[in-house]
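Review form for a predicted model. The reviewer records the input and the model, then writes brief findings.
Reviewer: anonymous (R2)
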Amino acid sequence: MIYYWESIKTLLRNILGIDKMVFLPMFVIYLVGLFSYCNCYEVVGRCIKFGKDEQMYTLIGGDRKCIKENGFTYCREWACHKKCSSFNNWPGICEPCPGDTCADVGQIFDKGDFFKCADNANNCQCSNNNRVKSTRKNASVKEMCLDDLRKATKP
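Model under review:
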C-alpha cells in the first residue's frame, strides 16, 4: 500500500510537476468524488426504493412490481419460480408456467385460484392461458412494502 502511494506521488511529481502540498488535497478531493458517486438504493420493508432521478438496475431471472409515491419508485422483486422458468436471462421477465397454471410473486397457482397480487392491495385470479386477472385498486407503499403478506386462498 505504501509503495503504491509513493509511486503515485512520484508519478505526479515527475510528470505533472505537482509537489506534496498540492498532491494531498487533490488526492482527498479525488477520493471524495470517487466514493460520493453511488448508484444506491434503500430497502423499505420488502421493497427497494429508488431515488427520483435514479435508474433501476436490470433484474435478471426475476420480476418486479413497482409503484410511484412522492416522486420515488418502490419495487417489490422476486425470483422466477424454478418449475416455470428456464432462467433464460431475459431482463425482468418470468416465463409462464406450463398447463393451466399461473406464476406470480414466485408462486404457482392453479387456474381459478384467487390470491393477493404483488402489490398486496388487489386481488388476483389465475385464468386461461397463464394470465393473471386483477382488480384495479391503487396500491400504496404501506400496503405493498410494509403490510404483512397475506397468503393465497383457494375458492
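Findings: The first helix runs from residue 2 to 16.
Further findings: Confidence is low (pLDDT under 50) at residues 151-155.
Recommendation: see findings above.
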